[in-house]
Amino acid sequence: MALLQLSEPGQSTAPHQHRLAVGIDLGTTNSLVATVRSGEAATLPDSQGHHSVPSVVRYSKDRICVGHAAAEHSITDPKNTIVSVKRFMGRGVDDLQVLGKKLPYDFVATDSAVPRIHTAHGDVSATEVSSEILKYMKARAVSALGDELMGAVITVPAYFDDAQRQATKDAARLADINVLRLLNEPTAAAVAYGLDSGQEGVIAIYDLGGGTFDISILRLNKGVFEVLATGGDSALGGDDFDHKIAEWILQQAGVDAATTELDASTVRLLMQQARAAKEALSSVEQVEINVSNTSLNWQGSLSRAQMNDLLDALIKQTILACRRTLRDADVVIENIQQVVMVGGSTRVLRVREKVAEFFACEPLVSIDPDKVVAVGAALQADVLAGNKPGEEMLLLDIIPLSLGLETMGGLVEKIIHRNTPIPVAKAQDFTTYKDGQTAMAIHVVQGERDLVTDCRSLARFDLCGFPPHVAGAARIRVTFQIDADGLLMVSAREQNSGVEASVDVRPSYGLSDNEIETMLRDSMAHAEDDMQTRSLREQQVEGERVLAALDAALTADGKTLLSADERATIDVARAELINMNSKDDADAIKAAIKQVEASCEAFVARRMNSSIKQAMRGHSIDEYATHHEE
Amino acid sequence: MAITLTEPAAARVKTFLANRGKGVGMRVGVKTNGCSGMSYVLEFVDEINAEDEVFEVRGVKVIVDKKSLVYVNGTVVDFTKEGLNEGFKFTNPNEKGQCGCGESFTV
Known about the structure:
The complex is a heterodimer of chains A (630) and B (107).
Chain A: E1 21-26, E2 30-37, E3 40-43, E4 53-54, E5 56-59, E6 64-66, H1 68-71, E7 81-83, H2 93-100, E8 106-108, E9 116-119, E10 122-124, H3 126-145, E11 151-156, H4 162-174, E12 179-184, H5 185-192, E13 201-208, E14 213-221, E15 224-233, H6 238-252, H7 264-280, E16 286-292, E17 297-303, H8 304-329, E18 336-342, H9 349-359, H10 372-384, E19 397-398, E20 403-407, E21 411-416, E22 421-422, E23 424-430, E24 437-446, E25 456-469, E26 476-482, E27 488-494, E28 500-504, H11 513-525, H12 527-561, H13 564-581, H14 586-599, H15 601-616, H16 621-629
Parallel strand pairs in A: 1-11, 11-12, 13-18
Antiparallel strand pairs in A: 1-2, 2-3, 2-4, 5-6, 5-7, 8-9, 9-10, 13-14, 14-15, 16-17, 19-22, 20-21, 20-24, 23-26, 24-25, 26-27, 27-28
Chain B: E1 4-5, H1 7-20, E2 25-34, E3 37-45, E4 52-57, E5 60-65, H2 66-72, E6 76-82, E7 85-91, E8 97-98, E9 104-106
Parallel strand pairs in B: 1-6, 2-5
Antiparallel strand pairs in B: 2-3, 3-9, 4-5, 6-7, 8-9
């Protein structure tokens, strides 16, 4: 007979209707799958007892292999063995050309914006490579759980943008996995420690992996997680620790690393020894190191205190990033109630020490830092699959960069600001700029800067065929909606006629965390410029609008309502405004607009009278009075 | 009238209860909704009801409602691994037949 699991009271499932759900930590270097069985969340090992699967896929002519079997070939067959594919997710050709220089892969440009990697098995996209990893994780889960999965929660970095999240979802779809939800990695780690059922307060997630560092600040409020801010360094991790120790060994061995060219096998041996020493020093005070081959021969010992000195500068960098992110979140250290440690490099005792010192509290380390994200995802999957009644766990994430629209003058009107918790829907009313306008182009952009050219374009669509109105009379409501997975839908509706248009933003490629960081930094650095540019552009747009209105009025009534003198005064003011509008002094444009308005005062009054007379011609005042009484 | 737990099964139930942080024991029962008549119920118990029978087996409270007991009396519950899969296995002397998948049974 089938094997049974313990369910929550009243939640026993009917045969063939098991609500089996897993959490998948789809990592850059390693991936894990976890599930909740009999109330216990744990990662699932393979038959050899390996829990983590190297995120490596090897494409040979007649077969595709994943994990340890593929990783063995990463050195002998680099072109067909794809490692760290997560870095390419949702990226375009341009992004990859920058990255690609250091990579052994042959990238193939295609008709779509998604580049493909040439392998012996054919050309594959990053999404397809990821889906192979997911298929592998799914197969392990199905054989461990004995039945098909209802769905999975897949974790992504908090800074993943729409394109990267969508690419992850597409990969899951290709692997025939129903995505219950994409969950931010730090949120998953907090869930693993059960912080969701705890007190209210602010939590920091310190995630130091092999090659990346992420710090996330979450706020817990009535069982709801809200990501306040994320930060980090995408090029800092445990591998850098190993490098530092390796450099030290070379120094001790009297080898000048700057001038000596070491062969690949020596470098590998050195890194192996450095890593082994680092890991050993988490449990012992001193370790013996022995590096010897044909080109290098050194024996010696490294103490924990010596290693601490080597690593302190690197650890300090992470602490500085923590400080910046706290500032971003507008949180002071005293408010941080818990710190969760994620990532293998947090096993280094010095890291724990420094983190404890900075946050003034002992970090949580009891769950294996390599597995904690997968475990949290599994717990969330269990809830979403419906195995825990009445215990609603609503997790909020944030958007990493502001989302907005292009308005006249190439300016950005932000609709949803960065760090807004999702899911979220926000609407704003816009209007037409010209008389008789019946269409509007909607350009959705992402970024912090004030000018469209400095932001990233996500989508364009047109709202067409609404009835003509005078400028400013149409009411177009634009709604931005972001679902729980962080995917954006933008819709526009002309309120008087009900004409609608919408677009799902599925950008073909995305931004890296580096680029997001750069964009954020630029927005700070250029804040002053942006403000000035914005006020100039706004005045220019206003100037053009005034000129257009004036010209229309002059064409209609200029001859009948103005004397030659009056016309001359207006023309001077008009010429001055045209002149000023082409220059870059916002105040001068403003003054010129005022001048035009002043010169037109009498003209405007006469036009008003004349149009009222026109409207009332053939009617008596009494008629209006009667209407009024009704 | 009794239910038996093997030593591994009892140990796992204790661990699972401890992990969960609450609950008094394990409910064993049947539901009439399987493709072959009936299916087993295996749940944590937070409250013992008036119509329940409680057996103390190897330090674990096994709770069975009186209606189910006639179908599961004499059942041995084991905890076992089959390949990568692991879970509780029921050996029920009352079973006369199972559906192909073994998830439901007739008496």
